[in-house]
Design goal:
The protein is of the alpha/beta class. The chain folds into 3 domains: 5-13 and 40-371, TIM Barrel (Alpha-Beta Barrel); 384-626, Class I glutamine amidotransferase (GATase) domain (Rossmann fold), CATH 3.40.50; 633-726, Sandwich (Immunoglobulin-like). Helices cover 28% and strands 22% of the residues. The strands form 8 sheets. Strands 1-12-9-8-7-6-3-2 form an 8-stranded parallel beta sheet. Strands 13-26-27-33-29-30 form a 6-stranded antiparallel beta sheet, with helices on one face. Helix 1 (5-22) crosses helix 7, helix 5 runs parallel beside helix 7 (218-238) and helix 14 (408-420) packs across helix 19 (612-626). It is globular, with a radius of gyration of 27 Å.
Length: 727
């Protein structure tokens, strides 16, 4: 696996450019740079093997032009070719018959000023290649070629999976890439299906010679190889054209995967988030979560966030049928609101131009609308004051309690903040810096159990600099190997110590040996008046978490824990210790900082149960910690997500309407418009605003500005509205 000198020089230039950009926090995307930094609209149709028979290239290119697409991803693949290739064992698509479909499309697209990225699929190849290249394939423990397909299925009988440790990745794919560039001078290269974020283990000879796939060393070895290949492909892309990029298949959503995306994207110029539709059991804001995470990882480098035009509902797939229009529109809106580029995606030209054509107008109209308002979507920096931190490392390694998922607490906190209308930015622990944290008044760490020493140091410095902090449950209680520390790593900030483990919260009654099940929960007793609990009337206690960690802390607690107790028979349904000294909430004020620690997994329990007391307790704690500095406010009815940006022309406030019976599961079937939303933003300076408009409504917007104080009312929001201001 080698780069020639020109390819190596191109890779070195990429690394230097990314490092320079990263050194300037908040650098606007319009700084001198390659074309892809301005992309907001990608329209992409994957070809199948029969498309070359009768595909109308003119109709295809005209559709993309009508959508104002700036770039498309054009099928090259690796298992079959869509042009007559001279690379051995790169077999032509069944319907090609000598046609250069790829070349025809390139010509038509360039006439319409649409750039072309070559789309590869190195993850699979035809089984007939095994006669000459048995080493190319991923193998199971028995040595058989692996043939797992998408959605839990099996690949067609003529296909098998490939292994990234073989020559298929460092010889065959590079040969095709170099041929493609030489023939068509494409604007970029993309590998679908690789590297992904989830690793499929392999026991081929190449893997066996490196490390046992069942060994803990397999993931680091896999990542090291993936980074080497990424750099190889980037070097190939850069040869002869500095503005040509390579990117791979990434994503993972809020949950993440086995690979460290920060390490994977060190030299990435584009983050391709393959998060095409809502998976089983996910909330509608899944796309916004993906966009936020990718944005935090990439900084000012572009994020292409895929939205499928084809349909999926939970675990069922209709890959040649049009998805619910309302679901598709909200996903595209979420991409724009997070500062990303819409990547609209369909499968099959024959199916999409002859059988089911409904998907065309959905994407065409949305992308064309964005194009008409493009300047307002080029962001400079966020105006939010609260940072919610998630940790992919915690999601991978945390030894979670029974009955829970490692992402429950971050999902619960995310939902609580939306419902409470508290705006926030989502940061990844792996990408925290002191400069980044300085723009926030408050940092939230909901059960971020695993934190590195460097991350702990940054959080401590943030508090020392006057920042406020909220943590919960087992935050900072585990090391980077997933092993429990002797005590909370941040315990000194709160003046608290651990006195037991979470298992203590489910101890059975004397005489019983079986602990209470994970579904049993605490109550939380209100011990004294406090702003956090003052809204709870006519009760001495409120609902509590499933799990807690016993602690000792300075001062008298405002809220204490009542441990789980029997739920049947009813005659025995009462607490044996209805009053305790076990803190449920640890509060402290240090100089200008406010600190709060919830000793239970309130956010996670809320995510699993929907208990209203839990959400109100957490939201009130966030407000108390922030001490009035919560950032922009939006008052009105409905469930919304808000983003407030300083933009190149001025400012933009994005309102995403999630008010829908399918907000937490399944898919949207229609939009439910909400009424007036009253918005208040404190601007970074008092520069006068010249004009304002509502981009989705297409109308002028009345506003009042007094120095840095900006106020206005959005009269109606269907799926999405953007209040755009020019200074």
């Amino acid at each position: 696996m080698e780069l020639d000198r020109r390819e190596f020089a191109g890779l070195s230039a990429v690394a230097a450019g990314i490092a320079a950009a990263s050194a300037v926090p908040g650098m606007a995307a319009d700084a001198a740079g390659p074309w892809h930094r301005r992309v907001k609209r990608v329209f992409h149709i994957n070809f199948n093997e029969l498309d070359p028979v009768a595909m109308d290239v003119t109709a295809y290119a005209d559709l993309l032009a009508a959508a104002k697409a700036q770039v498309t991803f054009l099928s090259v693949t690796g298992s079959v070719s869509f042009y007559p290739s001279a690379v051995p064992d790169f077999y032509p698509a069944a319907g090609l018959n000598g046609r250069d479909l790829f070349g025809e499309c390139v010509t038509a697209l360039r006439k319409r000023d649409i750039r072309v990225v070559g789309r590869f699929s190195p993850d699979i190849v035809q089984l007939r290649a095994a006669e000459r290249h048995p080493d190319w394939f991923r193998r199971d423990k028995a040595g058989a070629i692996a043939r797992e397909g998408a959605g839990g299925g099996v690949l067609p009988p003529t296909y098998g999976e490939t292994c990234q440790f073989t020559a298929y990745y460092d010889k065959q794919i590079p040969a095709i890439m170099r041929e493609l560039i030489a023939r068509y001078d494409v604007d970029g290269l993309y590998t679908n299906g690789w590297p992904n974020t989830h690793i499929r283990k392999c026991w081929c000879q190449a893997c066996r010679s490196i490390v046992d796939a069942d060994s803990p060393a397999y993931v680091p070895a896999y990542q090291k190889r993936a980074i080497e290949l990424w750099n190889l492909y980037t070097g190939i892309a850069k040869k002869g054209r500095a503005d040509r990029f390579y990117t791979g298949n990434l994503g993972g959503g809020l949950r993440g995967g086995e690979l460290d995306l920060t390490a994977m994207t060190t030299t990435a110029e584009v983050f391709l988030a393959d998060n095409q539709n809502r998976g089983a059991g996910l909330p509608v804001w899944d796309d916004a979560q993906q966009g936020r995470i990718a944005r935090d990882i990439m900084g000012d480098r572009p994020v292409f966030n895929l939205t499928s035009a084809w349909a999926r509902g939970n675990t069922s797939w209709w890959r040649n049928g049009t998805a619910n229009a309302a679901e598709t529109r909200t996903r595209m809106a979420q991409t724009l609101a997070t500062g990303g580029a819409i990547h609209y995606h369909w499968l099959g030209a024959q199916q999409g131009f002859n059988e089911d054509r409904r998907w065309q107008a959905i994407g065409r109209d949305y992308l064309a609308w964005q194009a008409a308002n493009d300047p307002h979507f080029h962001t400079v920096r966020s105006l939010h004051r609260i940072a919610l931190v998630t940790s992919p490392l915690t999601n991978r390694l945390y030894p979670k309690p029974a009955g829970s998922d490692a992402s429950d607490s971050i999902q619960g906190m995310y939902a609580i903040l939306l419902e409470a209308r508290i705006p926030f930015d989502l940061l990844t622990a792996e990408n925290l810096t002191r400069a980044k944290l300085k723009q926030y008044s408050t940092v939230l760490l909901p059960n971020v159990a695993i934190l590195t020493d460097a991350q702990l140091g940054l959080i401590s410095s943030f508090v020392a600099d006057g920042g406020s902090l909220m943590t919960s449950f087992e935050t900072g209680l585990y090391d980077v190997q997933g092993k429990m520390r002797a005590d909370f790593a941040l315990g000194g900030l709160f003046g608290m110590r651990r006195t037991g483990t979470r298992d203590d919260s489910h101890r059975p009654l004397p005489g019983n040996e079986t602990p209470y099940p994970a579904t049993f929960a605490h109550l939380q007793r209100i011990e004294r008046p406090h702003p956090i609990t003052e809204e709870f009337k006519d009760t001495n206690w409120i609902l509590g978490p499933n799990w807690s960690i016993p602690v000792t802390a300075q001062g008298e607690p405002a809220l204490t824990l009542i441990d789980p107790y029997p739920i049947y028979p009813t005659e025995q349904t009462y607490s044996r210790a209805p009053a305790t000294k076990k803190p449920a909430l640890v509060l402290r004020e240090k100089g200008g900082s406010r600190l709060a620690h919830l000793t239970g997994d309130n956010e996670g329990t809320y995510w699993r149960t929907g208990g209203d007391d839990l959400a109100r307790l957490v939201a009130n704690t966030v407000r108390w910690v922030a001490n009035g500095d919560v950032g922009p406010s939006v008052e009105g009815d409905g469930l919304i997500e808000t983003f407030t940006w300083q933009t190149e022309p001025g400012y933009a406030v994005h309102l995403l309407n999630y008010t829908n019976p399918n907000a937490y599961a399944n898919t949207f079937r229609k939009e439910y418009a909400i009424g007036p939303q009253e918005v208040h933003v404190t601007l970074p300076d008092g520069k006068p605003i010249r004009q304002a408009k509502l981009l989705r409504a297409g109308t002028a917007l009345t506003f009042t500005q007094t120095g840095r104080d900006l106020r206005f009312i959005v009269p109606r929001v269907v799926e999405y509205e953007v209040a755009a201001f020019e200074t």
